[in-house]
Design goal:
By secondary structure, the protein is an alpha+beta fold. The protein has a domain at 38-43 and 72-288: Dipeptide-binding Protein, Domain 1 (Dipeptide-binding Protein, domain 1). Strands 14, 15, 16, 17, 20, 21, 22 and 23 form an 8-stranded mixed sheet that branches. The protein has a 5-stranded antiparallel sheet with strand order 1-5-6-8-7, with helices on one face. A 4-stranded mixed sheet has the order 2-13-12-11, with helices on one face.
Length: 674
């Protein structure tokens, strides 16, 4: 293994941010009495469904091969140096490592059936938190946790570390670090915004009573809350001591100091986060440094960051020896996880040659069929596992710039795409057409469809006449000289619209990948001719993936603005549409940069429901249907297909279980080398 690593990777020097950890200071104050408390029973949840029985598991001493302790995983895009946090970017390969570094010790967990329950490795006795409804309408969750779990440096994980995660990620010092806004972090916690603004000395909604007990209070406006278990009851620890930070509680809430009790300054946090040799580049997503952001020296979860070689497109993690077990009793047994970027055209050959060992969540029918034929049937080196994608492929618009700020333009483009042909060309039978920005893994989606949601949607199919009618209704009726537009369009004859007294050309700036990309290829086959005929000018700009592309996509760049993109979208464990389409959340969340108050209103109708009641579940289905129907009208994005994903796993990997909900990180932690 050592020879492999030396030949494959450049070593990253680990720089310790803090020499001494120290104990979190402060007394153990008694909880402030609540007047008068009403104890609410936790939501009823069926007993967790076990992951498929691990019949292949044998004792760890017999599992790990003597000549191999690593697995090489295909990465679809190049990793970046932003390792610790998703604040600056969330490239797929980096995101998977973050799940392995920071996950698995939340107060709540979920199984493969998307059922949430108390994490038995964290919550004492696997019990629910105590839920208290306060006189002012707020709600307090009190957690009793084990203190036997440890960080990767061996330091015990205590209640101070759960409070520290919330306090740090909403602190004025974290907000002062240059980067996207932090408005979504713990948004429901009482006092959170005042704390971030520096208006209060403590985060009043978070209290620590002892090493094993803490509470979180959420505002009355968030009671009830649809994803109460998954969000308001689910908190994770963070090693703030590795940033030189200490957590205190003065009886009114928690606050932060430097280790030893000194003032925690913005400059100190900036250096701890970015490092002393920080180098900014390409809108911050290609930045490098020796701070915690680029080299997280202490982690929570089953794997630690080992190294990244951006030039070689390789990211590596090492097993955390101090992790312990998952909620269902698994200890990670693969020593090293190595992600390596491999482009689509050479993927199957790379798998056959052993340059990479596995690909997880593989879409694209041509590749799937090739892999099934060569790897499974002919060579017999791999097994496969299919499941519906928890997401979709799409064309996405920026709705605040150029022609795509107008709904008629977005609708016309959708009328000019034959999505059935598009989906078949990409999936080759391994997928289905998508009618909205949804996941087929959601129970409320299936119920909404059963109640006729699709019947209320505009079923866009290729229709040149409808596209032209829609454009004319939107005012796109002028030629470049202001005379009436006469079609068909050509490269020199495109439609215009009068906007603020000026003629705006119907010019679409399309940002796409410079690396080989099947979706880009299909768009170039199917879309330019009909768009041109209808009076559009489609200008394609190839960009390096993911840095320049994602930079401009998220609106963080300083260069040209683009208004059409092609990309895939996967859903997180918790779906929060009220963040994803709200301009107040900023472009890091509101990818389309749509500003539509009615859409935000519809999204928020799904936010404050009690899913423990039949009425609450029914209200979610109805609100979801209304939201999706309106989103279908707005066309801020064009969902094209929902793939059937395939995992191609080498036969020497045992205990591989995955599905739409689970994901690669969960499967890797439970797998082993035969």
């Amino acid at each position: 293994m050592k020879k492999y690593l030396l030949g494959l990777l450049m070593c990253v020097v680990l720089v310790a941010l803090v020499a001494a950890c120290g104990n979190n200071a402060g007394t153990d104050p008694e909880p402030t009495p609540v007047d008068p408390p009403t104890v609410v029973a936790p939501p009823p949840v069926d007993p967790p469904t076990e992951v498929a029985p691990p019949t292949e598991v044998v004792p760890p001493t017999e599992v790990v091969s003597t000549d191999r302790d690593y697995v090489v995983i295909r990465a679809t895009i190049r990793p970046t140096a932003n390792i610790a946090w998703a604040r600056w970017e969330n490239a797929g390969v980096n995101s998977g490592l973050r799940d392995l570094m920071w996950g698995f010790r939340g107060t709540m967990e979920r199984n493969m059936d998307d059922e949430w329950f108390p994490n038995p490795t964290v919550m004492v006795g696997g019990q629910w938190p105590t839920v208290t409804d306060n006189a002012d309408g707020s709600r307090t969750y009190t957690f009793e946790i084990y203190t036997t779990n440890t960080f990767s440096d061996g330091r015990p994980i205590t209640a101070w570390d759960y409070a520290g995660d919330i306090a740090f990620l909403t602190s004025p010092q974290w907000a002062a670090v240059p980067g996207p806004a932090i408005t979504a972090n713990a948004n429901e916690v009482v006092g959170r915004h005042e704390w971030e603004a520096g208006e209060t000395p403590t985060l009043t909604g978070v209290r620590v009573y002892s090493d094993s007990s803490f509470s979180v209070t959420v505002g009355a406006e968030f009671v009830p809350f649809t994803w109460e278990v998954a969000m308001l009851m689910n908190w994770s620890p963070f090693p703030v001591h590795a940033l030189g930070i200490e957590v205190h509680d003065d009886g009114d809430g928690v606050f932060l100091t430097a280790i030893g009790g000194g003032e925690l300054t913005n400059d100190a946090v900036l250096v701890a986060v970015n490092g002393g040799n920080y180098q900014e580049a390409d809108g911050d997503t290609a930045a490098t440094g020796d701070g915690f952001r680029f080299n997280p020296t202490v982690v929570v979860g089953p794997y630690m960051f080992h190294s990244v070689d951006i030039g070689a497109a390789i990211l590596q993690a090492q097993r955390n020896p101090n992790f312990g077990q998952t909620w269902d009793g698994y200890t990670p047994r693969i020593e090293y996880l190595i992600w390596r970027e491999v482009l689509d055209p050479v993927l199957v050959d790379s798998l056959a040659a052993g340059e990479v060992d596995m690909t997880i969540g593989q879409g694209q029918g041509a590749i799937i069929n090739q892999a099934l034929d060569l790897l499974v049937q002919q060579n017999g080196t791999h097994t496969f596992l299919p499941y519906n994608r928890h997401g979709f492929g799409q064309i996405l618009f920026h709705c605040d710039v150029g022609p795509t700020q107008f709904v008629e333009v977005r609708q016309a483009i959708k009328w000019l795409i034959d999505r059935d042909v598009f989906g078949e060309m990409f999936t080759e039978g391994h997928g289905n057409r998508a009618e909205g920005a949804y996941s087929t893994a959601w129970w409320w989606h299936h119920e909404a469809v059963a109640r006729g949601m699709h019947d209320q949607m505009i079923m866009y199919t290729f229709n040149m006449a409808e596209a032209i009618r829609t454009l004319e209704a939107g005012g796109w009726v002028y030629a470049a000289d202001g005379s009436p537009f006469v079609g068909p369009g050509t490269a020199d004859n495109i439609r215009h619209k009068r906007v603020d007294g000026e003629l705006m050309p119907l010019r679409i700036e399309w940002a796409t990948f410079s690396s080989p990309n099947r979706i880009t290829d299909i768009i170039n086959i199917l879309m330019p001719e009909p768009l041109t005929e209808a009076g559009f000018y489609l200008h394609e700009v190839r960009m390096a993936a993911p840095l320049g592309y994602m930079n401009n996509f998220e609106g963080q760049g300083t260069g040209d603005r683009y208004n059409m993109f092609n990309l895939g979208q996967g859903f997180a464990a918790i779906w929060t549409p009220w963040n994803s389409y709200d301009p107040a959340m900023g472009p890091a969340f509101n990818w389309t940069q749509i500003d539509d108050p009615h859409l935000v209103e519809l999204a928020n109708r799904m936010r404050f429901l009690d899913l423990t009641t039949e009425a609450g579940r029914d209200a979610l289905v109805e609100a979801y249907s209304d939201f999706m129907v309106y989103l279908n009208y707005l066309v801020v994005q064009i969902p094209l297909y929902i793939d059937i994903f395939y995992d191609f796993i080498p036969t020497w990997i045992g205990n591989w279980h995955n599905n739409s909900i689970w994901g690669g990180p969960q499967a890797l932690v439970r797998a082993y080398i035969r």
